[in-house]
Structures are given as structure tokens and as C-alpha cells.
Amino acid sequence: MFSSTQSAGTAGIDLNVMSTWQSGISGKGSLIGIVDDGVLLDHEDLLPNVQSGSINFLSGSNGLSSNDTGGSLANHGTAVAGLISARGGNSLGVSGVAPCSQFVAYNYLSKSTDANMTTALTTNKDVYVSNNSWGNVDGSGDFKSAPSTFFAAITSGLANGRDGKGTLYVFAAGNGAGTLGEATNFEVDNSNYDSFSHHYGTISVAGVLNNGTRASYSEKGANLWLSAFTGRDGVTNTALTTTDNIGSNLEWGYNPGDGSTAYPISTSYNLPDLKYNNSFNGTSGAAPQVSGVIALLLEKYPNLTWRDVKKILAKSAKKINSSHSSWILTGQSYHFSNVFGFGSADATAAISVASTWSTLGGSSSLKTFSYENSTQQAIPTDGSSLVLSAVISGSGITKIESISLEISSDHSNPGELVMALQASDTIQMEIHEKHNCYSGPKKTLPTKNCSSLSKQAYSISGFLDYPANGTWKIEIKDAVTGTSAGNITYYKLTFYGS
Ligand SMILES: [Ca+2]
Ligand SMILES: [Ca+2]
Ligand SMILES: [Ca+2]
After folding, report:
1. How do residues 55-104 score in pLDDT, each as one tens digit?
2. Residue among 284, 395, 409, 461 flagged as catalytic
3. Closest ligand to 220 CA?
4. Residue 313 parent element (H or E)
5. ω into residue 264 within 30 of 0, thus cis?
6. Domain end among 354, 378, 403
7. Which one is catalytic: 14, 36, 194, 233?
8. Could you say which of 125, 144, 320, 356 has the lowest number of CB atoms within 10 Å?
9. 413: domain CATH number?
10. Smallest Cα–Cα separation from 94: which of 49, 46, 51?
11. Whether residues 250 and 372 fall in one domain
């Protein structure tokens, strides 16, 4: 998180928290909701920041139980919690990004009913930031839905959290781009294919290594908002150091004391203190850093709405790996990449941008405008593009904050399609790429046709601050020529903004 005192990594490739901490900002008063498999609440370096109100869906109990909110199931959430809210300055273990923030934990992933999800995401309206280092199962390449209760819960929390200023929902982008060790040009999942990742109000976080390059597993997506730091296996590549779950015989967590780690690959080295591990990784490790940065920002400026925070984070993000071919300079002067989002989170820059900020308002003043078209337009079989147009006028939206695109097609294998959304100024954002789908979350399994596009939704972040009025073009190409290509039967654009 802070690069210059570490032996590995590139100086300046970090969250830029030091001057924020030195100015006395540590997340005090910011409440985090950790939606995960469970958190070891009485961990020595977490307990000082535990707030009452955690829910254990397995036992039905509220509050701090004797040991944790998930027993051996609390491995992942305990690591996530430490990255945000391990207490700093206590001469123990580690420090989270927001070392004096407080948190409540919900072990939804250990009993994942829709009702529990809604509870975990919305029951405590005082939650500033809801951290969600989870999504649908990675690595099959297929479109994965989320229940309507999910979208309702997020929409409700944006509108009703923090007295109408909104809870911030941070999500891991997903680890299904490939598997560890694969070339970075091997794409399976895209973050947008997972419906948990593309609500217009959420913040999807990609993972980069400590030299600013993409973590090979981190999913691309037009829906990405930010990046933060993560690692590999902790052996040949640096991984994240954080709090670790312990059991009655200290056998739990990613550092169970037997020289192995549970995820993603085994390693022969970890820390001697089994209450901490140095092998956590994935976009699950990146998202909590953004949650921590938001906790710092909201301590200093608690009146910012969820919309303010999202735009401040985009404006203050750091362009990393600046020669990467994915970077686009938009017509509104943002740098955007479908690998890195607007860039890596920068705490000190965010607080600086916020110091002169005029509020956008919350959900109640958010404008939406939709255009839809039921149609029957053939996708060419010769590799040329079908271009669908949407001429928008009278939207009343002069500054877009997010775009949602829904598409239906009778194409038998939409994995063959390449799709992009183009604004009036001809800047294009890639929203779907040619990829294989597998019969399970492993590329060694047989391939299959990807499931059909039935009002499949994609979220597009990069047209931030564009006017909605104008001519939008959706370009669709079948990258596997000669075979039947099918038709586009429906498309809908929804603009959110002010
Ligand atoms: Ca500590
Ligand atoms: Ca995924
Ligand atoms: Ca352990």
C-alpha cells in the first residue's frame, strides 16, 4: 500500500496514504460493512475496530460471538477486514488503509440466500462503505446473472444509506481473466459478464501488481471504476500481508502453519505468526483498499454523497502503466482503461479534489433517461460490423455518471461477438470481446456455446461527464466468419447522471 519502504515494487505505485495519515485522518467515524464469508472478530488486530451489529447468518446470532462469524469459513473475510481496518499504531501485526475505521461483518457467503444478501447489503443504514470481495464463480466465460433482489438492495442502499447520502458499494472486479501463470492476453471472464459487477452505482475494482502492471487474473471490463494493488502467490511474486484466521489449534486461514496456503496455489513460505498471512491476493484484496480510501475520504468530508465519492475517485485516480494500449483519453479529459478503470486509487489526491467539491446530490437528484429499440437486424457473417444507432435528444442529462446497455440476440454463440459503444465524438469503449465459454470454471474443461444474450446488461464507466444527447452507436461484429451469425433483436441504453 505504501511503496517506498518496501523492498519490492515501484516507488510511487501505491495508494498514497502516508500524507493523509500524517494529517491525522485514519478513518475515524467511518463504518465499514464487510460482506464476506465471515470475519474473526476477536482477532487481536481487528477487535479494536469492531462495532456492534455484525450478523452471523449461520447461527442466527447478532453481535460479537465468542470466536468469529463463520468459524473455519472466515478465512477470506478475515483477510479482507485487515486490509481495510486492522488497527494501526497498536504495536501489533498490520495496519489497514483506514486504521481507525470501524466495521461490522456479515457472513452472507457462508449462507448465501437472497434474503441474507439483502440484509447484509442494507440492514445497517449507517454503513459508509460496503465491501464486497465476491461475485459469481469465476472462469467459465459465461454470463452470470444476479437476482433482482440484488439490484433492489443496492439501489435502496444508495438512496437510504447515510441519511440519503448513500452507502458506497465496492466490488471486486473478478479473478476470471485467466488463471495464475497465464499470459495476460488470455481472456475468459470479463467483469461485465457478471451481473453482480454492473450496477450503475457500484465501484468495481481491478487488481494491479506493485509495479503497476495488471494482475493476470484481473478481469477487464467497461464497467471498471478503479484499480488497487494486489499480488500473486507470495513466493515468486509479492502478495498482500494482512490478518489471518486462526482456529483453536491455529490451523485456519491462508497461513495455517503447515506451509501451505488455501488459495490460489500452495507455497512453502508464510509468516511465522499464524495470526497473519503474506499470501493474500486477487481482486478480493484490491477492493478493500478502495473501501479503506473511501473511509479516509468520508472521515474528512462526511457530507459527500455516493455520487460525489465516485466522481472524486475517478478524478483523483492515478494513471498507472501509462504506455498500456488500453488507455483512452476521453472527450471529457479522463483517462480510462478497460483494464485499470480510471486508474489506481489515490487517497491524498482524492482528499485534495474533495476540498473544493460542490455536491452532485444523492439518488434523489440522479437523472435517468432510457432509449430502447426492439428490432431484427442481422449480424454480418463476413466479419463486417452491424452498427446500431441511438439518437438521443431531450434527455436532460448533460453529465453522464454511468451508462447501462442491454442487448438481446439470437446468436447461437455470443462468445464470438465483439461489441463496442461509440459516442458522438467517435470515442469507443469495448464492452464485449470474443472469448470461449467453458462447461465449468476451468479452461481445461470442454468449451461450449456461451449462453444467449437475453437483455444482457453491460455497464460503461468511461463516458463520465459526456452529455447523453447525441448519436450513440453500438458496433457489433462476429469475429468467427462464415458461420451463422444471427440477429440483434433488442437494445436499450440507459443514461444516469445530472
Ligand atoms: Ca496493527
Ligand atoms: Ca468473473
Ligand atoms: Ca492462520
Report:
1. 998 887 655 454 555 567 889 999 999 999 999 999 999 999 999 999 99
2. 284
3. 2
4. helix 306-316
5. yes
6. 354
7. 36
8. 356
9. 2.60.120.260
10. 46
11. no
Angle between the N-to-C axes of helices 148-160 and 114-122, in degrees from 0 to 180, rounded to the nearest 10: 10
Domain-embedded: residue 11? no
Q: Which ligand is nearest to the CA of 136?
A: 2
Examine the domain organization and report whether 337 and 437 are in the same domain. Answer: no
Query: CA 108 to CA 118: how far, in whole Å?
Result: 9
Yes or no: say if 155 and 368 are a contact pair by the CB < 8 Å rule. no
Per-residue pLDDT of 253-312, as tens digits, reads 888 776 554 444 444 467 888 899 988 999 999 999 999 999 999 999 999 999 999 999
**Phi/psi class of residue 341: alpha, beta or left (left: φ > 0; alpha: ψ in -120 to 50)?**
left
Q: pTM for this structure?
A: 0.95
487 CA from centroid of ligand 3 (Å): 53
Residue 211 C-alpha to ligand 1 middle, in angstroms? 25
The set of cell numbers assigned to 162 is 447515510
**Catalytic site residue 76?**
yes
Which residue's C-alpha cell is 465449468? 440
443 with 322, same domain: the answer is no
Question: Cell triple for residue 48?
Answer: 479494536
Same domain membership, residue 328 and residue 474: no
Both ends of the chain: CA-CA distance in Å? 34
- Between CA 357 and CA 305 the distance in angstroms is 11
Same domain, residue pair 374 and 492 = yes
Give the C-alpha separation, 84 to 87, whole Å: 9
d(CA 308, CA 362) in angstroms, rounded, equals 8
Domain encompassing residue 111? 18-354
Tens of pLDDT, residue by residue over 333-362, are 999 999 999 999 999 999 999 999 999 999
